[in-house]
Amino acid sequence: MHALPAAAPPAPKRQLLVGTALAVVAMFMITGGMLAVWALQRTRAIDDTGTWLPDGVTIPEVPTNVMLISFIGICVFAQWAVYAAHRRDRGHTVLALGCSALVSLLVINAQAFSYHEMGLGIGDGTYAVMFYGVTGLFVVLMIAGLLFTAVAAFRYIGGRVGDNELIVAHAIYWYAMAAVYSAIWFVVYVTK
Amino acid sequence: MTTIESSPEAVAATTDDSDAPSDASDTWLDRISDTLSSTDHKVIGRLYLGGGLLGLLTAVVLSVLISLERIDGADALLDEGALPQLFDGQRIALVFGALLPLAVAACIYAVPMQLGARSIAFPRLAAAGFWMWFGGLVLNAIALINNGGTLGSDSDMVGLFIVSMGLMAIGLTATAGAIATSILTTRAPGMTMRRIPPFSWSALVFALGVILVMPVFVGTLTYVFLDHRNGRTGFGGNEGIFDWVGWMVTQPATFLFAIPAIGLFAEAMPITFNRRLPARGVMFAGLALIGVAAFAAVTQQNLQGLPWAGSDLSTDDLGEKAQDLVPYFLFNVLPVIGIVLVALIALLCARPDGEIKVNITPAFVFGFLGFGMVLVGMVGNLLYAIDDLGLQGTVFEEATLVYIVYGAAIGGMGATIHWGPKLWGPAAPTTKAAPLAMLAVVGTVLAAFPLYIAGFLDQPAGAVYDDGDLSVWNILSTIGHGVMALTVIAFVGLLASTNRSSDDDQPVDDPWDGQTLEWTTTSPAPRDNFVDVPVVHSAEPLLDLKQAGSSATTDGSTA
After folding, report:
1. Which residue of A has its CA nearest to B298?
2. Burial of B109 (0-12, 13-18, 19+ CB in 10 A)
3. Which of A116, B41, B111, B392 has a CA between 20 and 30 Å from the CA of residue B271?
4. Closest in A1, A30, A126 to B219, CB measured
């Protein structure tokens, strides 16, 4: 009978961080894939008809630009939460998470306002289908981020003050979302 | 017998294990409930295995029906209206019903034990992934039965067909995330990435590939679904579905899903020749090359062809030819180079220096034969992409897919028999398992190779053709699929009989003379795999102990 020496149970090796990183990779892939198809269809439409944006549709630039700027806020608040969590400062950690949640709500609100301003029906052709496809995915990812923030905040309120990994993972998620929206902003709202 | 020394505290802890498996007094309903809601990676793996075998059997039956329909190229044997659904069903069942779940199953039940981990990372996510995949598969079948699919006339069922594919993709991505995170974070102390077993490395390449490829598939499905429900202007409605997302169920994407089968071959060779795996880095690079090339699938094109027409290999227009050759090389040749690298390193295990002690195990037989079938499929894809051969639009592509899927399924069956003792105790005897592998290869070759020939003879990919001489190849293909169906049924029978023998036969902890950590725990493995996490000092920790002749044991409390 052979015997291997027993080791002490290994400390968790940043499982949540690695999992979040993989989720971020998946987010980049789905957004990148959708924007690639967007670019392809846009080129085809311009080649065929000379236009991509349907007649009468105007992109509301104020809310879409404000959404981009808001991501600076979300990232700053998420990083503030990391800083406070490392200092085991529960009050500031929860406050920073709350601010992140508030600004992410603002972004969702601005996206809904953009939908209203554009007045584009989902059945109004290829542009409309793809516009709602890309921005709908963005809204879903925003809601997922909001839930992530809520979970992190409730765990901190509940006393899991040492759970820094969750806060760092939360920040990584919002940094990635900033990159995702930057790409959408440039392709969908700027390039049009 | 081999074991891990357990600390007295750990042994004491196991006597009060509230998570212990259900005892004999539990009713069958309790046991089913425990199984379906379990977060034990071995149980989740078994669920995927069961679903994958069911999917494989479905794919084989659909293939038999299609082959029967093709025997007479002029007359329809089946209802012509059902043919589009049959073709859709065959392809979905081959890739999403069989290839992917069988690969995921092997990764889920084997990898944590190979790593010396007590559980998989994010077990609830892995379990949720299984249920999403399985739900998607059921919904897909419902959609196809009710006139959905790419050419279906029921709009709601076409929508359900698209959604079900997305559900399966999300589920598989979730499980792949759990697999990749496990490999990256739950390795035993001392197990560097270079020391992980070849199968675990193949699982990592596979899982990362799925995480990279599936989201792109889901994104495009989103467009296709929205377009189908709203106007059908930009994506061609249901007829355009496979134009946009067909790349996921054809080559080179399928290469990615066959990587664990190649990993089994790499895992089996050192055990078979009782050697340490030489040049691990090169072997790992070979497996990664296959994954890198398969990532080409995200170009969302069904084919990276080589348009060479009319040039007769002259040196004219070299710049233009280079533009064709580079993507052809990267997308079609690179995976073949990867698999050849794996084969060369594996063969080094059999180098004739010193005494060779050959230990033929089911993993070797299934792994070697499955590897061979996948290789033939990859080489077939090399030819398929060359425009001048005129194979595009023929049944040749289907033959390539069948080689890949059946080859990987043979590997999946081998993995099940290899790690079966850790799942249910007794080991299936090699004398019973090896003939099954042979039968599976006969079925695969008969099912696919005649279609290679028919492809060269210009038999179109559908069911209709004019040349009556082609019938013989379709008859042979029908027989091949039939043999494969028998193999799958016999394999399930072998598993059942192996399970039934548990009362009579004492399970052996290390039945194949293994080299890695999973063989240090009991058969079947307990819920948490290991009482104490072992320390690893080399890539073959168990072989180290065997060669050192260590006999230090505990009093039998092996976990």
Report:
1. A33
2. buried
3. B41
4. A30
Name residues whose C-beta falls within 8 Å of residue A29's C-beta, 6 or more positions apart in sequence: B211, B212, B213, B215, B216, B219, B298
Does residue B502 have a pLDDT over 80? no
Record: contact B185-A132, CB cut-off 8 A: no
* Chain B residues touching A34 at Cβ < 8 A: 219-220, 222-223
Interface test with B, best of A1, A4, A20, A43 (most B CBs within 10 A): A4
Question: Nearest CA to B66 among B448, B473, B463?
Answer: B463
Is residue B218 a contact partner of residue B170, using CB atoms and an 8 Å limit?
A: yes
Helix ranges restricted to H, B146-234: 155-185, 198-229
Q: Is the peptide bond before A9 cis (omega within 30 degrees of 0)?
A: no
* Residue B225 DSSP code: H
* Band of residue A3 on the pLDDT scale cut at 50, 70, 90: low
Of A5, A13, A26, the CB nearest to B535: A5
Is this complex's ipTM strictly greater than 0.85?
yes
> Given pLDDT bands bounded at 50, 70 and 90, which one contains residue A19?
very high
> For position B239, what pLDDT does the model report?
81
Q: Cα(A31)–Cα(A180) distance, rounded to whole angstroms? A: 7
Which of B3, B215, B227 lies closest to A33 in CB terms?
B215
Size of interface A-B (CB pairs under 8 A): 162
pLDDT, position A185: 95
Q: How far apart are CA B449 and CA B377, in angstroms?
A: 10
Q: Is the pLDDT of residue A1 over 60?
A: no
Closest-CA residue of chain B to A42 = B234
- Which residues of A are less than 8 Å from B163 in CB distance? none
Q: What percentage of chain B exceeds 90 in pLDDT?
A: 53
Q: What is the pTM of this model?
A: 0.91
Cβ atoms within 10 Å of A61's Cβ, excluding its own? 11
Which residue's structure tokens are 């892939």? A29
Domains and CATH numbers, chain B: 8-16+44-308+319-548 (1.20.210.10)
Q: Are B512 and B418 in contact (CB under 8 A)?
A: yes
Query: Which candidate from B173, B185, B218 shows the least CB-CB separation from A15?
Result: B185
What's the rounded Cα separation, in Å, for the pair B518 and B260?
Answer: 17
* Chain B neighbors of A26, CB-CB under 8 A: 173, 177, 211-212, 214-215
- Of B297, B266, B270, B298, nearest to B283 by C-alpha is B266
- In angstroms, how far is the first alpha carbon of chain A from the final one? 70
Q: Identify which has the larger pLDDT, B109 or B559.
A: B109
Confidence grade of residue B233 (pLDDT, cut at 50, 70, 90): confident
Domain ranges of chain A: 16-48+62-190
Residues in chain B: 559
Residue B409: is its pLDDT beyond 60?
A: yes
Q: Which CATH class is domain A16-48+62-190?
A: mainly alpha
B210 CB within 8 Å of a chain A CB: no
Average per-residue pLDDT for chain B:
86
The pair of three-digit structure tokens given for residue A66, joined into one six-digit string: 């404000």
Query: DSSP 3-state assignment of B3?
Result: strand
Instruction: Please give the distance of CA B463 from its chain centroid, rounded to a whole number.
Output: 28
CB B532 within 8 A of CB B462: no
Chain A contact for B246, CB < 8 A? no
pLDDT for the residue B552: 45
Q: What is the pLDDT of residue B25?
A: 59
Percentage of chain A surpassing pLDDT 90? Answer: 70
